[in-house]
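Project channel, design review

CF: Before we commit to the Dissostichus eleginoides constructs, I'd like one complete example in the thread so the newer folks can see what an input/output pair looks like. Taking Transducer of Cdc42-dependent actin assembly protein 1 like.
RD: sounds good, go ahead.
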Amino acid sequence: MERLSDILSSCPPPEPQKSSASSWSFRQQKASERWKEARPHHLQCLLEKEAVGHPLCGLCHEPAVIRCRECLPEEWFCGDCDVLHHKKQPLHNRDSLINGFFKPISPKTCVVRVEGGYDTHDQACILPTVKAPNSSCKGTNFTGRYDLHLPLYVCQTCQQQWTPDLKVLLKSGYWPASVSISTLYTLDLLSSFEELKVISPGFSRQTFAKLLEHRTKCGGRSGPVNGDALQRSLLEFSYASQQQAPSTRLRRKLADDKKRLNQEILKYNQLVHDSARGIDVAAVEHSLSGGSIMSALWPWEVHGMANFTAKKKILDQVMLTRRLQEEKGILLLEMAQHCTWLQNMAVALKNKVAEEDVDKGNGGLEESQSGLSSPDTSEDEEGNII
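CF: and here is what came back for Transducer of Cdc42-dependent actin assembly protein 1 like:
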């Protein structure tokens, strides 16, 4: 008995069982905390996937000018390989990178090499139709839910393994449904749901999840679609997209500025016949990129480790100058309106004074005429009576 009592005393007391409601709320709270911790990393990965770099064509290893995510893993194409490869697949969504950033192009647009760079031209496209009888073809399409495995690459020499991480998945057009990346959504799916919410605000996520489940069954597959996970992933994607928008606009603006600067340098070099006095475009590009041609920012756009107080003072001065300029225009407009009103009032006052002067003159003339004629006529009338 003593031994049994010792064993019972050494055992820890049983933990109280939590209800299903409290356990669900605890899981939701932990999921929110994990999403909050991973949010900066997701945003950084989303920004890095917009970097163009210097990719090579996957077929001929020439500099690539076209990206097609629907042709993964061979997503990079030069102009000639793009025309040959997408001749039978004109419905693929492609992006050109000749301007330093990804720009969607239509199926009727192709990129050709011209003197001094690349340019876009129109091309003829044939609508894809079903193939003739007695022929076979194979294809897949990402509609609904697919139970797949992440690729795992193993080196036969050193046995090192590699599997795609979040950066690679984002570059491939996928967005995680959880921090563990056990479920993925395509970026096109989330963008389509956002557009549906804008067009039809009453369209619910549960309806959209049911639609995906129905399309999964129509494709001969099975498995539910979690509406809560879809909603959470959509909110995180919307937040990251809103944070990414200013950076995308800045990249495009800087790319346009660099393009115009290079054009002006080329014009100057054509006017200056002496090559020694000309400007080296490559040196200017290297200098403006902060020592790296891969950079898409001007050196003065890099924040660095400057003091935040100094930045705030400079920003306050700039905003004060802009505010004074705006108030100057408003003050001039108000002064012009006030001067116009004073001029109108002066004209009206002059007209009023003139009218009063005319009325007074007419009244004095009548009184003088009556004062001269009344005594004579009265005396004549009295003489006639006598």
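RD: helpful, thanks. DSSP finds nine helices and ten strands in the chain.
CF: Confidence is low (pLDDT under 50) at residues 130-142, 292-297, 377-386.
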